[in-house]
Amino acid sequence: MAKATMFFARIQTIYGKGRCKTLFSNAEELRMMRREWAKTLGEFSMEQLEKIMARLKQMLADGDERFRFPDVAQILALANDKKRDPAHKPFPKGLPEPEWRTKQKREFGRKAIKGCLAELNGRGGAA
Questions:
Q1: Cβ contacts of 3 within 8 Å, gap of 6 or more
Q2: What is the pLDDT of residues 41-97, one digit of tens each?
Q3: Is there a contact between 84 and 90 (Cβ–Cβ < 8 Å)?
Q4: What residue spans define the domains of the chain?
Q5: How far is 44 from 28, CA to CA, in rounded Å?
Q6: 20 Cβ neighbours under 8 A, 6+ residues apart
Q7: Which pLDDT belongs to residue 127?
Q8: How far is the C-alpha of 125 from the C-alpha of 78, rounded, in Å?
Q9: Is the pTM of this model over 0.90?
Q10: What is the 3-state secondary structure (H, E, C) of the chain?
Q11: How many CB atoms lie within 10 A of CB 60?
Q12: Is the dihedral of CA 83, 85, 90, 92 positive or negative?
């Protein structure tokens, strides 16, 4: 029962009392929830419960909509969440383009526009 008390106290601390009212609105409902989940929570080690809480906080920080409101079963499922590294990883952003390259591109663009305007006005090269 101590793990259940600790677990629900942590949930209240993480989510705040306002959001926890969706889970239990008064002290009697909180006691009933603790009793209901005590056996399941007792099967977890303290290290596993700490890992669950750490993952929960990370999910909340990431803005995961699944954890917007406390759902005990979904929170406990974080113990099973084996997050794999994706097969692809985006390349890190490179260094900014040097000023000489930016000037070179602008000059090329000006020449291209000048050539297009000349072609449109009938002054293009003989074909």
A1: 38, 41, 42, 44, 46, 49
A2: 888 888 888 888 888 888 888 888 887 777 888 888 888 856 666 677 777 778 888
A3: no
A4: 2-79, 97-127
A5: 24
A6: 11, 12, 70
A7: 45
A8: 69
A9: no
A10: CHHHHHHHHHHHHHHCHHHHCCCCCCHHHHHHHHHHHHHHHHCCCHHHHHHHHHHHHHHHHCCCHHHCCCCHHHHHHHHCCCCCCCCCCCCCCCCCCCHHHHHHHHHHHHHHHHHHHHHHCCCCCCC
A11: 13
A12: positive
Alpha-carbon gap, residue 29 to 124, rounded angstroms:
84
Longest dimension (CA), the chain: 92
* pLDDT tens column, 13-36: 888 877 777 677 777 887 888 888
Amino acid present at 108: F
Instruction: Report the alpha-carbon distance of residue 1 to residue 63 in Å, rounded.
Output: 31
